[in-house]
Amino acid sequence: MGYPMASNLFKKLGPSKFWVLDHSEPVALKFKQEHGNVHVATKASKIAEECSVIVTMLPASAHVRQVYLGENGLLSKLQPNALVIDSSTIDPSTSKEVSSILEKQGATMLDAPVSGGTLGAQAGTLTFMVGAKTPESFEQSKLILEHMGKNIVYCGLPGTGQVAKICNNMILGISMVAASEAMNLGVRMGMDPKLLASVINTSSGRCWSTELYNPCPGVLPNVPSSRDYTGGFGVSLMAKDMGLAVNAANETKSTTILASVTHQIYNQVMTTPGYEKKDFSSVFKWLNNNAEKYQ
Amino acid sequence: MGYPMASNLFKKLGPSKFWVLDHSEPVALKFKQEHGNVHVATKASKIAEECSVIVTMLPASAHVRQVYLGENGLLSKLQPNALVIDSSTIDPSTSKEVSSILEKQGATMLDAPVSGGTLGAQAGTLTFMVGAKTPESFEQSKLILEHMGKNIVYCGLPGTGQVAKICNNMILGISMVAASEAMNLGVRMGMDPKLLASVINTSSGRCWSTELYNPCPGVLPNVPSSRDYTGGFGVSLMAKDMGLAVNAANETKSTTILASVTHQIYNQVMTTPGYEKKDFSSVFKWLNNNAEKYQ
Amino acid sequence: MGYPMASNLFKKLGPSKFWVLDHSEPVALKFKQEHGNVHVATKASKIAEECSVIVTMLPASAHVRQVYLGENGLLSKLQPNALVIDSSTIDPSTSKEVSSILEKQGATMLDAPVSGGTLGAQAGTLTFMVGAKTPESFEQSKLILEHMGKNIVYCGLPGTGQVAKICNNMILGISMVAASEAMNLGVRMGMDPKLLASVINTSSGRCWSTELYNPCPGVLPNVPSSRDYTGGFGVSLMAKDMGLAVNAANETKSTTILASVTHQIYNQVMTTPGYEKKDFSSVFKWLNNNAEKYQ
Amino acid sequence: MGYPMASNLFKKLGPSKFWVLDHSEPVALKFKQEHGNVHVATKASKIAEECSVIVTMLPASAHVRQVYLGENGLLSKLQPNALVIDSSTIDPSTSKEVSSILEKQGATMLDAPVSGGTLGAQAGTLTFMVGAKTPESFEQSKLILEHMGKNIVYCGLPGTGQVAKICNNMILGISMVAASEAMNLGVRMGMDPKLLASVINTSSGRCWSTELYNPCPGVLPNVPSSRDYTGGFGVSLMAKDMGLAVNAANETKSTTILASVTHQIYNQVMTTPGYEKKDFSSVFKWLNNNAEKYQ
Q1: What is the extent of the structural domain holding C48?
Q2: Looking at this predicted complex, what is its ipTM?
Q3: pLDDT tens string A246-262
Q4: Where in the sequence is the active site (chains A, B, C, D) (predicted)?
C-alpha cells in the first residue's frame, strides 16, 4: 500500500524535498530510481530530522510502536510542530497513546487509516478516516491526504479514525460470511446464483458484499470470486482487522458475539491448506466443501 | 399482513366474486363490513369449492399443512386448474411438498413469500419472490400479485420463492446484529453515532441495516430504533425466519455458522424481559446493557 | 448397532420365538444363519402380527415414522397389549407422538435410546435411557433391556429418554470441541500434551472428553485420536445428535448458543475432504491445520 | 486471594522476616494487626530490597508489568538470586517476557497461577501450575508453595503455568455454558433436573460443571446455583480468563471458535443488570429468562 500512496504524493508535491524509508531497502531504492529526486533514509529518526510532514503506513501496532517510539524512531528526532499522519490500521488505544506521546513533544499526530485497497491506492481514490485533536490539524492533514485519496473524513479525536475503520471492517467481515452462507445455501437448494444475488440486492439483505464483491463465482465479473479468489483483500488481513475489533470490544466491555465468531472463521480459513493467500471472500469456497455431494 | 393484501386485491378486482377466510371470524366479518360484496367462509374447503384463484397468507409451515391438506382443507374440494398462491414464509421443503400434492390434483400452486412488511402491504408495494413450475403459471400469478405488490420476481421452480426469501432474511438478520455490534462498539469508543453511520454508509460496511434501518437511536428518524424499537419487524418473527434458514441448511448439509449463532441471539433477545414485542433491531439495546458504566 | 443388540437378546431369551427385520435383507438372513431358529420378516407389519414384544433401532425420525406408522408398518397389525421399545435416537417430539398413537391402540411404547457405542452393544454393557408412561411399563421393559445393557435408567414420561440422551450428547459434543481447542492451544504454546491433559484432568476442566477420549494424538492409547481418528463415533452421527438438540431447543424456545455453533462446526468438519468417515474427535485435527507453521 | 495465601504462608514460615504489600494499605495493616511480627511495605521496590523470596498475586497483566517493571517496581531493587513467584493469572506472553527480564538480572521468576478459589486459598488446598526455567527452581518454589497449596504441578518452561491455567479454564468456561444449555433444555422438556444430572454424570456428558458445580438450582447443595449464584467465581473473572485464552490463541494462530463465543456470552451476562456480582454459573439463569412461559 505504501508504495503507490507515496508515488501519488510525490507526483503532486512536485520537486519539494522528499524522503522515503521502507523496511526493505531495495524497495526504497526502487522508488528513488523510478521517481528520481528522492532521498532514501535507513532510520526513522533520519526522516524525523529532515521532514516536517511525515506519513507512515505500517502493518500492525507493534511496528507503529517500533517506528515511532523505538530505538532510532521518529520520536527521538521529531521536529516541534511536525505534522505526522499514520495511515496504518492498528488498535485505537495504541493510536491514542502514540499520538499523546508525540503531542507532548509539540508535534501533531493524526490517525488516518484507509479503505480502498491497493487499487484505490494506485488510483489515488482512497478513503481516509481521520482522528485529529483539532479541526485545524484535520484541515492541515487534508491538504496532504487529498493527494492520495478522494474522501477525507473527519471522525473526531485521535483514535477515532481507527475506530471508524475497525467498525466498518467488522461489518464487512461479518456480512461477507453472511453473504457466503446465504449464497451457498440458496445454490444448494436449487436457485440460480445470479438470480439469487439480484433478488437480495433489491431487498433488505443487500450489502456491499452481495452487490459489489459477491463471493459466489460467476455472479460478478472482475471480483476475486470469479478468478479463484486471487487478488483482493487477503483472508489473513481480514482476520487481523477482526482481531482489532474484538480487542477494542474487550477493552470497552462491548459484546461482539458475531465479530468474535467471524474472527475465528477467518482464522480457520486462513490456516486451511490452499487458502492462505486467497481473498477473504474465499470463505464461500471453504463453506462449499464437497458441494457436489449435497446439491 | 393478510388483511391489507386482501383489501388491495379486492379494490383492484372490482365486483367479481370474492371470498375471505380468517382464523378469527370477526376479522373476516370486519373485512366484509368494510368492503361490502364479500363472502365469508368458515372452512378452507368452501373457498376451494367457490374460487378458481386462491391466495393464502399463514404464519408457519404447520398452518399451511393444516389449511391445505388437513380436514376441510383446500385439497378436499380443489377445482382442477385452480391457481393457488401461498404467500406465507415457510420452509422450502413444505412448500415443494404441498405444491407437488396439489399438482397431482391438476391444480397449480406457487410459493410467493413477500418482503416489505405491513406498511408495504397497505401501500401495495410488496416484493413477491415467486417459485412456479412454469413461466406461464408465473405470468398468470403476476396478474394477481401486481394488485398487491410492486416487484414480482421469478425465482425458479416451486420452493425457490421460499429459498430466496430465507436467504435474503438470513443476511438481513445477521447484518442487523453486525451493525448493532459495530455501532455499539464505535459509540463506546467515543464516536458520534451519526458520523460513524455516515462513514460506514460510504464504505464497505454499508448494508440495508446501517443505511435504512440503523439500530442505534438517533441516527435515522422514523425507524424503530428512534421510537424505542416499537413497530417494525418483531424480534420473534426474525427468530422464526432465522430458524427456517438453519433448518433448510441442515437438510442440504450447508454450514451456516453465523446464521445459527444469530438465530440463537434473537432467541435470547426475544425471551429477555422487555424485548418480546420489540423490533428486531432492539438487539442494539440488548447489547448496550449498562453502557453508561463502560463508556 | 441393531445386530449385536439383537444377538445378545437372542442369546439370553433362548429358544423362544424370535423374529428379525432389517432394511437390508441379507443382514437379516446372516443373522438367521449365525443364530439359527430365527424368523426373518420382510415387513414391519409381519413383526407386529407375530410378536408381543418388539425392539426397534433406526437411524432417524423419518425411519421411525415409516416403520411404525407407514404402509405395512407396525401400527397396522399391532397386538393390543404389545410392548414396543424404540432404541433409536430421534427427536423427543416424534417419540412422544408415535408413543401416543400406539397407546390409543392399547399398546405400550417406550423410548429407550442408548449410549455406549458398538463396543457396548457387543459387550451388552449399553446404558438405556428410558421414557415410559408408567413405572410398571418401565419395569417390564427393564426385563428385556437388561439382556442388552448394564444401566437401565428411568427418565420419566415418554420422550424423556430422548431428552436425556440429547442433553447428554450435546454436552459431549460441545466439550469435545472445547477439549480440542484447549489441547491445540496448549500444545502450540509449548506444553507437552500428556502433561497438559493430566493437569486438566485433576482440575476443573476435567470432562469425559479429556479423561477418556482425549482428542490429541498420543495422550491416550486405544482411542480414535491415537489411530488417526478411525473407529469410534462418526462426526456425522455427532452432527445429527447436535441437530436433534438444536431442534428440540427451538421447539421449547430454549437458547442454545454453544450447541448451535458446535452443530455447525461438526457440519463443516464432516464435509471437509478426508473427514467424512472420521471419529468426532477429529475436530482436533481439523483445528490443527498447518500447525507446524505456527508452533 | 492474596490475603489468605499470605496468611497460610506466614503461619508455616514462623517467625522469619515477613513483608507484605497491598494496593490498599489498610488491608496490609489489617494483616499486620492480625498476624503480628509483619512488616508493611508501601512500594514494591522495598519488598525487593528486603526479601530474597517474593510471592505476588495480582489481578491482570497490566498490574504485573507495573509492580515488576514500573516505577518503584520489584526490578529496580531486585536481589541477585532472588526467587520470585507470580501467582497471578495473566497472559503467558507477559509472563514469559517479565520472567526473561528478571532473569537477566540474575533472579529466578516462576509463573504459578492457582486453581481452587478463595475457599482453597483459606484451606491451603490450592493447586499451583508452575512454569520454571529449570526443575531445580521448580523444586525450590515447591518448598514455598506447599505452604499454600496441595498440588504443585510442574508444567514446563516459564509461561507454561499460565498456559495450563488458561487451557483448563477455557474448558471450564465452555463446559459451564454447555451444562447450562443442556440442563435448561432438559428441564423445559419435562425432565426432573436431579434425574437429568444423574444420567449425565454417569454418561459421556459428565464434566466438573455437571458433577460438582451444577448450574441448575436444587441439583446440588452448597454450590452457587443453590444460593442464587452468590459466592463462587465471579462471571467477570471468568470473562477475563476466557479473554486470556482468546488472546493467547490469536498470538499462536490457534482457532478457538467456542472459546470466543463463550467469552462473549460471559461478557454479555456480566453486563446484564443483576448479574455483575454473580457466580459464573449464573449463565443458567440468564438462559432461563421467562422460562415459566415456555415450559
Answers
A1: 2-157
A2: 0.93
A3: 999 998 989 999 999 99
A4: 165
